[in-house]
Every structure is written in structure tokens, then in C-alpha cells.
Amino acid sequence: MRALCWDGGDGLVVRQVPDPELRNAHDVIVRVRRSAACGAELPMLTGGQPAPGVGEALGHEFLGDVVEVGPEVSRHRVGDRVVVCSTVSCGRCWYCRRGLYSCCDNGSSAEAMVAEPPWGAPAAGCYGHPRSAGGFAGSHAEYVRVPYADVGAFGVPEGVSDDRAVFASEAAPTGWLGADLGGVGPGDVVAVWGAGAVGQLTALAALMRGAERVIVVDRYDDRLRMVERAVGVETLHLGRTDVAAELRERSGGRGPDVCVEAAGEGGPRARSFAARLGGRPAGDAPAVREAVHACRKGGTVAVLGAASGFVDAFPLGAVLHKGLTVRGSRQNGQRYVPRLLELMARDEVRTEHLATHRLPLEQGPLGYDLFRTRADGCVRVVFAPQEAAG
Ligand SMILES: [Zn+2]
Ligand SMILES: [Zn+2]
Fold first, then answer.
1. In Å, how far from its chain's centre is CA 124?
2. Which of 366, 363, 329 has the alpha carbon at shortest distance from 104?
3. Phi and psi torsions of 133, nearest 5°
4. How many CB atoms lie within 10 A of CB 93?
5. pLDDT over 90 for what percent of the chain?
6. Distance between CA atoms of residues 43 and 219, nearest Å
7. Ligand number nearest to the C-alpha of 103
8. What is the separation, in whole angstroms, between the first and last Cα of the chain?
9. Which of 40, 128, 187, 303 is deepest in the core (most CB within 10 A)?
């Protein structure tokens, strides 16, 4: 089959790779209809985070049709259209039983020990990531093996389009998680850093939990206009505004009750200045820093995107003196996807506007160039491996 693979450095190539096979009784094989590029992959391509091996497929947010089913799978049949949670979790371990799917003990391989110095402990796996995250082949491919399919794959209701449902794989549940971590409730003022897919969906989740004001902060005008129009929230332009002063102004002089980082890492430029720790480049997380400074005393800061092992200049003193709660998590989509699919079916969650560019797999390298440079108003590139190159 064809797959979009990492070629070393920041290079990508579409190449022939072996078809996936059922390896475990709980697996299914999915024929991919949509697979979304994700900002979490960009630090991999610039050496900021461990990448999959050279020649291995990228991609972890996807939806497709079940074409093969392992003997112990009970919830899926051949022909079902399913969206698959990007994190791989067993559903049975101590953590999964408590809903902490992203902390799963069985999602990543023994090689996950490699992940411990920067990330603290092995945790759930992820498609299209390095071997330390389980070594599961990526979804920018014609077919994908889905382990623990009864736990991580969800039937998509009829009438929900592929371009909508693909965002139930990761971006939407991550947004719901952000609002959850922040404990957003009625009357809250919520600020969200990042107007990409996760930021937009965090803003929507906050609104749906009753937030009184939601303010999205970003440096790209087209994204800010998109989130104003599509979600109906306020925005602030980073760089043209004194963000902290403006946020205080809009929150009774105190600062937002909840600040959510959904911006990801600082760019390659920030990293090149950053110190190296343990042989790995330290990231920069300017949005987390700003969120800590902007948040009102006693408020909550939720970290969704800044995944580097170490960051410099974290304002720990402000956390203590302001009595802040700081929380972070990778997505626990298994908790949110069924509800999100219902909301999508009822048109209460609409996400298809985020798929600004739909391309055949063969145009993968071009797609990542668009995504990386944010050219042409690109928010998310979504690959459609079943559609032929035009
Ligand atoms: Zn992602
Ligand atoms: Zn588990």
C-alpha cells in the first residue's frame, strides 16, 4: 500500500510499505477515508521531538472503514465507518479503568523507557509516533492496524460527514479535555492560546459548559476571523495587543478564571536558542508562560499542546504566589468521543471548516508545506487516501 512517510530531516515521501495485518485478537484493520495532519508532528519534523523511524508512516488522527476484524472484537463489523482515537489505550489497566486513558500502562512498548527522561513515564501509545510511543504505524496511509479496537474505535453516525467526524479523533476531544481540566463553569472568563483546530474546539467546549466570555489569542488574522465566525467567541491578536492588559480589562481587572494553552511549542527559531538538557533540545512554551502570568489569582491553567520534556523560564514563582492550579494531559478521547459524535450528529458541534485543505495522499509533502507555513489560510490539511491524485 501507499503511505506518507518520514524521510529524515524535514523531508516526507510517499512510498510503498507493507499492508498491515491483524496481529492480535482485539485488532481491526481500517481502510482510511480521512487522515488529518496535526501540529504535534511539526516538532518531530524539525528534530524537537522523537520522530517515527525513517521510512515509517506519519499521521494519527483518522477515520475509515473496517475491512478486517480480529476474533475477539465485539463492537465492530466489516463495513462499519469508524473514527479512531489517536491515543492507543488498552481499556483494562488500572489507569484506563479510571478513565485516565492517556496514562494507559499497556499502550506503549517496553521501549517506552526511552521516553522517560523527557516525559516522566511511559503512557498511552499513539499512531505515527516513535517506537517509544508503541511503534504503531501512522494513518497517512491506505490502511491502518487499530489495536484494542473495542476501546479506541467508534462507529460514526450516518449523516456525519467524514470531514466533520475526522476531528473526533483528536482535536475535538482535546478541546473538551481542555475545558474539563480547566473546570470551566457558568460565568467563567476563559482565555485560549491558539486558534488552530484544538484552540477553536476548546473555545467551543468552554462556551457549551456555560462560560460567560471566551477569548482566543493567536498571531494569525485568518484563524482569528475563522474562530469569531465559526464559534462566535472574542479574539485578541498577539503582537498587536498587550494581551495580559486586555485580558484583565475583559475580566473585571482580575484576569481570566481559566487559561488554556492550545498553541503547541515555540517554533524552530525558539528552539535553536534554547538550552540543551540531557542531549535533547529544550522547548520553549511562550503560551504557557503568558497563560500563567495572565490567569487570575486562584485560577487554573491547562496545558494541552506544549509537549517538550523540558522548557526554560517557567514562571514557577507566579504559580505559587498567585495560588494557581496547573494541569496538563494528552487527550483522553475514549471518554469524550461517543458524546462528541452525538453532538456532531445533532449539528451542535461542527468541525468541517477546520479542514481547509483536502488532498490525496500523493500530495502529502505539499500538504505539510502548506500546513507548516500556514500558507493559503491553512488550518488543517486532511488527506483522503482513497481519492486519486488529480
Ligand atoms: Zn494530533
Ligand atoms: Zn490501559
1. 14
2. 329
3. -105, 30
4. 17
5. 76
6. 19
7. 2
8. 19
9. 128
Alpha helices in 83-126, H assignment, sequence order: 94-97, 116-119
Q: Does 271 have pLDDT greater than 50?
A: no
Indicate which ligand has the atom closest to the C-alpha of 101: 2
Ligand nearest to the Cα of 106, by number: 2
Q: Residue 246 Cα, ligand 1 centroid: separation in angstroms?
A: 30
* Cα separation values, 250 from 191, 202, 210, 255, Å: 10, 19, 17, 8
Cell of 97: 479503568
In Å, how far are 213, 234, 246, 370 from 249, measured between CA atoms?
12, 13, 5, 36
What residues flank ion ligand 2 with Cβ within 5 A? 89-90, 93, 96, 104, 106
Could you read off the pLDDT of 144-154 as tens digits, one per residue? 999 999 999 99
Cα 127 to middle of ligand 1, angstroms = 9
d(CA 255, CA 74) in angstroms, rounded, equals 49
pLDDT tens per residue across span 325-336: 999 999 999 999
The sign one gets for the Cα dihedral 359, 363, 368, 369 is negative
Give burial (CB, 10 Å; 0-12/13-18/19+) of 105: middle
Confidence (pTM)? 0.93
Is the separation of the CB atoms in 35 and 61 below 8 Å?
A: yes
Cα 372 to middle of ligand 2, angstroms: 33
State the distance from the centre of ligand 1 to the C-alpha of 63, rounded, in angstroms. 13
